[in-house]
Amino acid sequence: MSAYTVRTRFAPSPTGFIHLGNVRSALYPWAFAKSRGGQFVLRIEDTDVQRSSQAAVDVILQGLQWLGLQPDEGPHHQMQRMARYQEVLAQLKAGGWVYPCYTSVAELEAMRERQMAAKQKPRYDGTWRPEPGKTLPEPPPGVAPVWRFATPREGSVRWDDQVKGPVQVENAELDDLVVARADGTPTYNFCVVVDDVDMAITHVIRGDDHLNNTPRQLHIFAALQATPPVYAHLPTVLNANGEKMSKRNGAKAVTAYRDEGYLPEAMVNYLARLGWSHGDDEIFSRQQLLQWFDLKHLGRSAAQFDEAKLRWVNAQHIKASSGAELAQAVTPFVHAMGLQPDARLPALCDLFKDRCDTLVALADWLRPYYDSVTPDAQQLATHLTPAVQPAVHTLATALAQLANEQRWHAEAIAQAIKATLAEHGLKMPQLAMPVRVLVMGQAQSPSLDQTLALHAPATVQQRLAVATIGGKTAL
Ligand code: GLU
């Protein structure tokens, strides 16, 4: 085994409920680490105390657990690492990498306005930056300074981004970043670097909204004499309207998809494909993803979320799941309808799985097996014509006989249906439709023999009796 271990991280800020765009930034580092025998670290970037919430952290943890993207390490919380940031800040101060700056907010604002008026890029002008031979102003009394990082003035910073290709930024473009505020709290870019160093992160795979932070972070890595990670900046995920997906424009929390009946395997498949490809493969398992995942095939342009495609992918995974797997997955949805599933559940899931694109839809199909039905009046009128009623009666009688003989299974039921059709000179749909409406509540279902076989014989008797006895007057 090599001494080098791939370590990736997902570093969400719990300032809103993570949505699918965010989760993709968890999936890729997870897949990369797991496909390389590495480790995936979870770090909660909760330094924005005003906007962070425990509820948002809970959605992160539940979402990752639901999708099977559990971290090997963490969650680390930045708020619990303050002492460490202070330690590293002291190190930077001692090394002369940072300097105190007393420029007030009002002065910064005035500076900004002057620069804008002169059509210059707004930036800190370096008043308090020590330079050889420069005399610094006298610090104003009683003012606590911020600490700025002395970015090299000359040269450039570059990295080989795994998505964007080589990126080079001139240092002259970067001003001196504040690494600690006047109250001593460290700033975002500084904490990220300390964490990525301490957590031995080898690959940073994150959204390209952080692209501008990377040159600044690379300078801090250099100051700490640490090897920077490999970077891959992922293009944005757009919503259906082509806008950047965000909570502000209606993106749903990831856990909403669990509640809407998506399978975690389908979500992983769909999200993996939203910005990464393996040839033309659209449907794949988690194992295949881990076999195939690489950074080379990350997409370079923005991906657009498409709910119809997600439903289609979900339907494919439902279809490919076993009855037993689906039984387990659908149980909470059946419970949510106030119904109690039983031992028939796996067989029922097998029977209906081809017709569903979510677990909610599957649970809905199961309702007639665990609840009473109210046949749709319109459909009853259409399908249960007086001409067909005697055939329904014949079938009911034949089915009662099967039940008595303990032959209640699909083959025997198919025989009884066939015999009834022959006796009454009817075609299958003429009999199957009204029977479905009576037993299932509506006219669509998989093959009638299998649909009936999974009902208790007494239930079928009782529902067909509505047509042959009481139903007559109603029609
Ligand atoms: N906390 C940042 C965010 O939620 C991510 C930082 C990073 O990945 O470096 O956007």
Give the topology, please:
Elements lengths: L6 E4 L9 H16 L3 E6 L9 H14 L5 E5 L4 H13 L3 E4 L3 H13 L28 E4 L6 E6 L3 E6 L7 E3 L7 H11 L4 E5 L5 H11 L6 E5 L2 E2 L15 H6 L4 H10 L12 H7 L10 E2 L2 H14 L2 H14 L8 H8 L6 H12 L6 H7 L5 H16 L5 H15 L3 H13 L7 H6 L3 H18 L1
Parallel strand pairs: 1-2, 2-3, 9-10, 11-12
Antiparallel strand pairs: 4-5, 5-8, 6-7
In short:
The chain is mainly α and 475 residues long. It has helices at 20-35, 54-67, 82-94, 105-117, 188-198, 213-223, 254-259, 264-273, 286-292, 307-320, 323-336, 345-352, 359-370, 377-383, 389-404, 410-424, 428-440, 448-453, 457-474; strands at 7-10, 39-44, 73-77, 98-101, 146-149, 156-161, 165-170, 178-180, 203-207, 230-234, 237-238, 303-304.
Describe this structure in words.
The chain is mostly helical. The protein has a 3-stranded parallel sheet with strand order 1-2-3, with helices on one face. Helix 8 (264-273) crosses helix 10, helix 11 crosses helix 13 and helix 14 (377-383) runs antiparallel to helix 17 (428-440). The longest helix is centred in the C-terminal third of the chain and has 18 residues, at 457-474. Helix 1 (20-35) links the parallel strand 1 (7-10) and strand 2. 47% of the residues lie in helices and 11% in strands. The structure holds glutamic acid (GLU). Glutamic acid binds next to loops. The site of glutamic acid (GLU) has 7 residues, from loops.
Uncertain regions spanning at least 5 consecutive residues: 469-475
**Annotated CATH architecture of the domain at 372-475:** Orthogonal Bundle
Helical percent range?
A: 40-55%
Beta fraction of the residues? 5-15%
**Total helical elements:** 19
Major beta sheet, strand line-up:
1-2-3
Radius of gyration: 32 Å
Distance between the termini: 77 Å
What average pLDDT do the residues reach? 95
CATH class of the domain at 372-475: Mainly Alpha
- According to CATH, the fold-level topology of the domain at 372-475 is Arc Repressor Mutant, subunit A
Given helix and strand content, the structural type is mainly alpha
Largest β-sheet summary: 3 strands, parallel
* 3D shape: elongated
Number of DSSP strands?
12
List cofactors, ions and other ligands: glutamic acid
